[in-house]
Structure prediction request, 622 residues.
Amino acid sequence: MSILKFSVFHLYSLFSLSLSISIYLSLRVMLIRYPVRNVTRTSASLLPRLGLRGTSTSTSDGNSPAPEILNFQDSRTAYASKSLRELIRARMVLKLCSVNLIVDNNESLMKFGRAVLRFGLFERLMRATFYGQFVGGTDVEDLRPTLNKMQEFGVKPILDYSVEADLSEEAGDVEPIPDDTAAPQRSHLPKFHPDGISSNRKKFSPIARSYPYTGEESCDANLKIFLECLETATQVCDGHAFSAIKVTALSKPSALLANADLLLRIREIFEAYSVEEEDRLPPFINLKYLPRDVLGPRNLLVQRRMYLRHFRDLHRECGTGLSEDEVDRMFGLMAPGGEESIPFYKFRSLCLPREPLYDVLTRTMVDGKEVLYPISESNIDAMYRLQERLTVLAQRAVELKSKLLIDAEQTYFQPVIDFYANWLMKEYNTDDAYIFNTYQCYLKATPSQLIWDTNKAHTLGYKIGCKLVRGAYMEQERQRAADLGYEDPIYPNKALTNSCYHNMVEILLRRIQKNEAEVMIASHNEFSVQYVVERMRQCDIHPQSGGIYFGQLLGMCDQVTYLLGSGGYRSYKYVPYGPVDAVLPYLSRRAHENKGMLQGSQKEIDLLKTEIWRRRFGLLKG
Prediction:
């Protein structure tokens, strides 16, 4: 028996040696044929296609350094913080995540594993594989070793307590309407129909993070979790701590839907009774270079103004019953300085629940329908409680000098999320950017929204915080638009999404140069990261004090994160944490959410392989 074991061992060793020699020779040939400098030159050569000239290697005095081109092939730097065991695990997990069959059935596989294995054994298995790869730990003490090691290599955490509800397939996203509500909340637009959210619930349940609403107590419990996350981030991060929150965790879905519908209806009314003025375009926007196919067919909201004559027309055509003097006095409330015209946000302020114009328009009928559908008192109260919870979080973030990232969510919730994110920025971003809103660049509405938000921040004198992402709900959003018969909110192709992303970067760079903005570049796209780094050099924005941060998910894209960290940039990993069993829904959602990204991780898998062989056999130099 011992001889048999000895023979098998030697056969395996011989096979491994032969394989290593073959890989070594193959890699040597690849490095000769495709040297690293070609990869970096390709990144630089793409810049002119985006209308950029590229940084000159020297100025007239000849003393400026050459532009820094990031080498995303540098496996030594990318994985310097990882042990050989961690590298092997990472390669195995990423390869498994690139298999459609496994990703599509990951929930069933995990349930089967829990049923067959005792929990202790199942937990050890998950820690050795998927949990260990994508989750930081169970609690603060469990997190510390991982976060300390990250920060040794120039990378900081964005903490997210990732305990999620593992809802049954039969569960909907909308809680039952309380008995004290006389009728279901009506909506102006199909997007905001409550029953529409449950469309294809079974198919898309893993995609969107869910917080079941069981009463205001559940929202208070989520608030406590977010506060603990803020405290934890401050404890473990040596400056510029970030933590992430979701607004849907802090209020009931029907209230969010009703208010999102109201906000878009108010905007429709404003656009119908206002005029576009070319001279209102902010100085940091140049439409000559901002592609119309990115901006979309609609006029920019920032260019529109409502004059007294438009306000009178609104009341006359809708038949509100107010006298002209009453209408003029109401306009004066929005223009207390005697301004001839008002922007959208001033008009909106008078149309919100319990404000004078809201009361008028909700009781005014046109063609048998109210101009604004009234929101139930229970939903109005819910939004005030949401405002109180967000205020508690923002005040604590300022006290701790920590930063709060408000995550983007589905388009039917996003209007109310944008509203409260900007309200918080106005209140708390006066001295520094403590509050960040997320902008999804695959949405057609994003350019107009970000331009509007940026200009409003400039006008009112606060700093805007932005997190730029491409987006994660494409299949769900498109299916829902088709089911309910409204326009697909997403760009038709990836090229337009990329163009939107880089153009939004350009808008924010101009604000950053004026110290009026900060931005988190949340992207796994190597070209986008290279693009921002080179534009920082061109704009003379310092990596450590210029208000630009870079972020990627834990367990993915280390060749970007750690290269930036080692180069002195503000580099972050999005670090989820929580008990193993409670985080399984998060792992499932991330697998679905990043399915395309995981399938496209072959380069990262190959880079891991290169580093494993370099360490194991010392065959690759440098």
